[in-house]
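Hi Y.,

Following your request, here is the sequence exactly as I used it, all 414 residues.
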Amino acid sequence: MSTAGLTLDERTRRLSLDPRDPAFYANPFAAYARIHAAGPVWFWEQLGLWCFFGYDEVNRLLRDRRFGREVLHVATREELGVPAPTAHTADFDRIDAHSLLEREPPVHTRLRALINRAFVPRRVEALRPAIEQLAHALIDQFPAAPFDLIGHYATPIPVRMIARLLGVPEQMAPQLLDWSHAMVQMYGVGRDYAVEVRANRAAADFAAFIGETVAARRLAPGDDLLSVLIEAEQTGERLSEDELVSTAILLLNAGHEATVHALGNAVHLVLTHGINMRAMLASDTAMAALVEEALRAAPPLHLFKRYALCDLNEHGIALRKGEQIALILGATGHDPRTTRCPASFDPTRASVAHTSFGAGIHFCLGAPLARLELQCALRVLFTRCPSLRLTDAAAPRDSWHFHGRSSLTVYAGP
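Below is the corresponding structure, written out as tokens. Let me know if you'd prefer a different format.
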């Protein structure tokens, strides 16, 4: 495993590594191993941020209320030197401004309490038959020749299920994917003007579609999340139209983007490590353990940023109010201080430590659904296709922020 592009200066605690280097984003874990061996906190020159790699540090800072996802509720743009919003990202910024992921209490508390109603255990568990039925239907359509599992299986399951949960027509899935892919590029590294323009156009179109769907639900409510949110608004909990639209878009984006990569990564790990899936399929406990180990070994989301909400000192670093830090979620499961032999993929580990779903008030509220989708999809896949095998090297996705495979060519057998 090459880490040729990585340099560490232990005296200044500075790290140099191009996150757009294909050798890095294809396998970031080799670089993480070297970084962990030298220390948990580094200033990453290409990101321009202090970055935290250790499990204990990231887990604690995700819960530390001195940091937040927004900062303009405690200081002005002028005070922090934050530039004014740009006209060419106005539609994207409007959605982002009302996103649950980007808000802090008390707004976050109110929004999360409303959205949690859709993710109570009984509602999530009720989706199990639908997930399994969809998985079987997709496998029935597998080509006889080698094919891309990402496109034929890993992508349709989460995007169709989150569309169903929200009450959005499943035939819109391809368009939802296009909009989502354009928007999530805004959270990656090295975005440029072209990325911003595409994301803004997607945000405008996405918002218009959700607005029309909300209007239809007002006239004819159903048993879906949008109807639940509209009902909450009408009973005086002050969920605005902008919040409705932003919440629906966040759930559609977050509800499939990470799960697609998590499922593809899990299948790749199983096939490349020769895991005995017959033993895993024997119990729900074993399948749940396999999913957690896959989330630890190859998490889909690697970067989460937070603002310092006051002047503070953290790990010997003086941070000013408004300064950002980066929590490297993808590295925490490979911290040798908390995981023995982190480079190995072992679904029988006694305990698994990772931060793939975050922690604290921004812990992923869709985590129960994601876990259920992963367990069902893997169980059905390896039950129906016990001879599944790779026929080509998996192509890494051209991204470090979202770590996954752009394609996974497999042969289902007989």
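The domain at 7-411 is CATH 1.10.630.10 (Cytochrome p450).

Thanks again,
Q.
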